[in-house]
Write a structure and sequence with these properties.
Number of strands: 12
Structural class: alpha/beta
CATH architecture of one domain: 3-Layer(aba) Sandwich
CATH class of one domain: Alpha Beta
Number of helices: 13
Strand content: 5-15%
CATH topology of one domain: Rossmann fold
Distance between the termini: 35 Å
Helix content: 40-55%
Order of helices and strands: HEHEHEHEHHEHEEHEEHEEHEHHH
């Protein structure tokens, strides 16, 4: 019954879109990344395929996103491309997911500046000048630093990141708040912990060990981790991260005292703790450690856990997955995915 209702609502959205009635036209920039690969299908399911435009960089969009709805290639460093895209599709809402991640950003700091700093400013300015109603941004636990309380890190606290990626996330929060308060643009955003998902392969993120470990547990029955076994970090499963973004998008603006800096979290664990729980399900699995000094230094500057009370109070945030539910779902879906690709 629930599936039939969902299908019916989707059809209504598609028809409304064809007739030009639906207000929400959404552009997802960085749609080919880890979050975008899950966010775009969920938004299309909710608002209609034709109302959600997937924007990728060069050829990084997966086939399923190109087949299920409109898509473009866009470089956030080019403000004209952003403006043209907004006007071509009559965009009301932008999700900006374009970012150079932690470890890669340290190696390519000039590229990181162009994408994470200049690209963000281009998006916000283009939104103001082209009547975009809302912009959704993604910050990170990288916005914190060595002076930040490590356990149950408060929503409002000291931020002194020591990486270019972390600095860019503080910039994201501050600039988003500025455009919200001084320019009248409805800008909202989350501080995400490490995000775990099965759709896209791990990339250059410091928390990506928590994705890579599952691939190796299934394919090789062993994994060599680049972080110390006792490095505790906050994490979230992708369905919860997507739900949080959409829930914040639709939250009553009058209830939001914060704007672009909401802590959200659902679990915290170490590589050793995660490996032990995987081993309970895959008995042959073993984990080894070869510490990457750069990634370890980044992880050491991040919190052990987050206090997300503010998000729970202001827009009723609540995760659905705990660590055991996440592990079971990851192993189930990855086993299906990997068997298909063999």
């Amino acid at each position: 019954m629930q599936i039939q209702i969902k299908y019916f609502l989707k059809k209504i959205n598609d028809v409304a879109s064809a007739k030009g009635f639906l207000v929400k036209k959404i552009l997802v920039i960085g749609a080919g990344g880890q979050i975008g690969s899950d966010l775009v299908p969920e938004l299309r399911d909710k608002y209609g395929n034709n109302n959600v435009v997937a924007a990728g960089f060069q050829n990084d969009l997966p086939p399923e996103l190109k087949e299920s709805g409109p898509y473009i290639y866009l470089d956030v460093r080019n403000k004209k491309e952003i403006k043209d895209s907004i006007n071509k599709f009559n965009i009301d809402i932008i999700f900006n997911l374009a970012s150079i991640l932690s470890a890669l950003a340290e190696k390519e700091y000039l590229l990181s500046y162009e994408v994470n700093f200049t690209g963000l400013l281009n998006i916000l300015e283009a939104s103001i000048s082209n009547n975009v109603k809302q912009v959704m941004l993604v910050s990170s636990i990288a916005a914190f630093g060595s002076y930040t309380p490590s356990d149950s890190t408060p929503n409002d606290t000291i931020q002194n990141p020591s990486t270019i990626y972390g600095i860019s996330k503080v910039f994201t929060e501050l600039l988003g708040n500025y455009f919200s308060e001084k320019k009248g643009l409805d800008v909202r955003g989350l501080r995400l912990p490490g995000v775990i998902s099965w759709k896209r392969e791990p990339t250059a993120g410091t928390t990506d060990y928590a994705v890579d470990i599952f691939y190796n547990a299934i394919l090789k029955k062993e994994y060599t981790c680049f972080l110390n076994e006792n490095t505790k970090l906050p994490m979230i499963y992708m369905p919860d991260a997507i739900n949080a973004l959409i829930k914040l998008l639709n939250a009553d603006k009058s209830s939001l005292k914060h704007k672009v800096d909401f802590n959200i979290s659902s679990m915290s664990f170490t590589p050793n703790e995660l490996a032990d729980l995987i081993k309970q399900r895959v008995p042959e699995f073993n984990i080894y450690y070869e510490i990457d000094p750069l990634k370890q230094s980044i992880a050491d500057s991040w919190p052990n856990s987050l206090d997300d009370t503010v998000a729970r109070e202001e827009w009723n945030w609540k995760p659905k997955y705990d660590i055991n539910e996440m592990i079971d779902d990851m192993l189930y879906n990855l086993n299906i995915k990997l068997k298909k690709n063999m």
